[in-house]
Q: What sequence folds into this?
């Protein structure tokens, strides 16, 4: 099933509750929640207090993307604050500590996931694939919203789709960065089935129609 995960990084922070409600009202599947520490990426965003508040106002799964150094220190706290999916970057720590972070998330009965920056090859996911319920491919450099989509990430998406199909078919493949209706179709063709979308969703004249159009790509591409 194709899924849409609007990113509240592009929401109106003065009306965050309203915009989170609009995600559910649009028929979207996840709420994407970006956490930046100003160290792993050159920007700051929100953290645990905001996540707790968002959890109170939506029943949708919260898809939490940790762009932070040494995420093993915090993954349990984000699980306890209401995250349903917790994604850590493979570049953010040693293999041992990334494995520990994923195990902690699973032990909290949440969904562990990994993310790959644009410069990180698909093969970097291999040591963690069996532990993951989702793999996220960045189609922009992480740290800022509103960047242009990197079409040269599509071979990586395709490579990961082949790896997932062979080794962990239940794992979802997510893309994040510059995703609109045109680029979502390219990502779907390459093998993605979860689409993080920011400004394209929140600026859409009809958010429900935008979500429906991405959902319909499942039939256009003959994939799920």
A:
């Amino acid at each position: 099933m194709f899924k849409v995960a609007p990113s509240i990084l592009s929401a109106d922070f003065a009306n965050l509750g309203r915009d989170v409600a609009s995600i559910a009202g649009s028929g979207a599947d996840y709420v994407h929640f970006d956490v930046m520490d100003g160290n792993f990426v050159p920007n700051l965003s929100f953290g645990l207090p905001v996540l707790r508040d968002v959890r109170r106002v939506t029943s949708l799964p919260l898809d939490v993307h940790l762009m932070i150094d040494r995420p093993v220190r915090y993954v349990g706290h984000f699980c306890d604050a209401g995250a349903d999916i917790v994604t850590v970057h493979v570049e953010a720590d040693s293999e041992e500590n990334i494995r520990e972070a994923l195990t902690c998330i699973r032990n909290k009965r949440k969904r562990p996931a990994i993310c790959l920056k644009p410069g990180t090859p698909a093969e970097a996911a291999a040591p963690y694939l069996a532990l993951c319920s989702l793999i996220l491919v960045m189609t922009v450099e992480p740290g800022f919203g509103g960047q242009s989509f990197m079409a040269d990430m599509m071979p990586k998406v395709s490579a990961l789709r082949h790896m997932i199909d062979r080794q962990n078919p239940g794992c979802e493949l997510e893309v994040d960065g510059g995703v609109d209706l045109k680029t979502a179709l390219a990502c779907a063709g390459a093998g993605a089935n979860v689409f993080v979308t920011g400004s394209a969703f929140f600026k859409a004249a009809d958010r429900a129609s935008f979500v429906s159009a991405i959902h319909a790509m499942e039939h256009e591409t003959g994939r799920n």
Notes: The longest strand covers residues 31-36.
